[in-house]
């Protein structure tokens, strides 16, 4: 069954009591300023039809959701083996900013969706593009069909001021020879990607290419191949929610990607993309009410990849 706006609004009402039970990310001080009461959802069908409810047009910090967009850009610039010799394809079972496996695994991150992996991807972009931040923004604006999207400079610089952990991760990888560029410029770019401000509607539109075999909304040409799109969805299903990936697969049953800004994007291949936003997080750093909303929606409309 197809969701209506009433169905989506009803789901938001059902999960609203969860607000207060999670925690807004505060290790990036600029994120702690966001109201925990925000709650939005948008569905984008592969033909472009949007169904939405709540704060679905309000922009928020996409944070780690950007890791999918930077990997997509890297896939357009590199041969697969050039990427996968530097970053793995396995779930980590550890926190998104953990370094514990890096030391034991020669500086090769488990997957591209934990911080270490996304930093390697940012390093790849830095090596091959003269203006990676510009190119990334251009790609995202095209995918979202929204020329007004911007980086949030306040969020990016707030994160730069608290970057010890990400810098440590990058330096450790560099000590193993798995980082080609100077750490600080790559970190600056990575924080900018994370600071992208987008709404649920923007994000649902942007990720349409993963529900449509690599073909972005309104485009004539694929951005990545059908095979790459399948591969990306597989990585999202196994690694997109860090050490909460198994729980998310069990409850929601869709490839997905979360960010500490409280957004989660989920893909129903062949049909639609969904984006939810609720800033309070569970202990794994995934939106608490957002996951619950996706679980209810998956159930009500009878969709899952399993
Ligand atoms: N910018 C954040 C960080 O590097 C992204 C983390 C996230 O969204 N899980 O810590």
UniProtKB/TrEMBL annotation:
Annotated GO molecular function terms are: glutaminase activity
Source species of the chain: Photobacterium sanguinicancri
Where are the bilayer-spanning segments? none
One of the Pfam families matching this protein, by short name:
Glutaminase
Taxonomically, which superkingdom?
A: Bacteria
Listed under catalytic activity are: L-glutamine + H2O = L-glutamate + NH4(+)
Q: What class of enzyme is it?
A: hydrolase
Q: Where does substrate bind?
A: 64, 115, 159, 166, 190, 242, 260
EC assignment: the record states 3.5.1.2
Protein name (Swiss-Prot/TrEMBL) = Glutaminase
Outline the subunit composition.
Answer: Homotetramer.
Entry similarity comment: Belongs to the glutaminase family.
Which SUPFAM superfamilies does the UniProt entry name for this protein? beta-lactamase/transpeptidase-like
Q: Has keyword Hydrolase?
A: yes
Q: Which UniProt keywords apply?
A: Acetylation, Hydrolase
